[in-house]
Design goal:
single chain, mainly alpha, 7 helices
């Protein structure tokens, strides 16, 4: 028995259907994901990567996306109270669709297959380090900027 079921038995309150309560969340994640994926695709068209070259577009999309995640999560968890669908829409949907682990992995494989193992390893390490640094520094800067203005 789940906690909501036990609560409804104890209080006599009608039980909510868990499936229908998730429909709005799934819808906003899907809509946000479409927006983020289109933005990432647009970036790849505007700044294409040469065959065998360092995948700068994917690198910067992931780094910028991680920085935005750092700012966003501090804002919605520590600074402001937001609607319950903002986080799944923007954090999971838009930013999840914009950043891309799958393209990162494919880029590494393509570089390795093209005989550019050194570039593939540099890309693997640089993306990981830059993305982690971006989220951490952005969250830190946001906390400092809004330090005294908590919810």
């Amino acid at each position: 028995m789940t906690a909501p079921e036990a609560e409804s038995l104890r209080t006599g309150a009608p039980r909510r259907n868990a499936g229908t309560s998730q429909v709005p969340v799934v819808a906003v994640v899907a809509a946000g994901g479409a927006i983020g994926a289109v933005a990432r695709y647009a970036a790849s068209l505007w700044w294409p990567t040469e065959a065998g070259g360092f995948p700068w577009t994917t690198f910067w999309v992931n780094v910028v996306g991680c920085a935005v995640i750092g700012v966003f999560l501090v804002l919605v968890t520590e600074v402001r109270t937001t609607h319950r669908l903002v986080r799944p829409f923007f954090g999971t949907g838009v930013l999840g669709g914009f950043t891309t682990f799958s393209t990162y992995a494919v880029d590494i494989q393509r570089l390795a297959d093209a005989g550019r193992a050194g570039t593939a390893l540099a890309y693997l390490a640089a993306t990981l380090c830059a993305a982690l640094a971006a989220v951490w520094l952005a969250a830190l800067a946001t906390r400092r900027l809004f330090g005294g203005r908590q919810r």
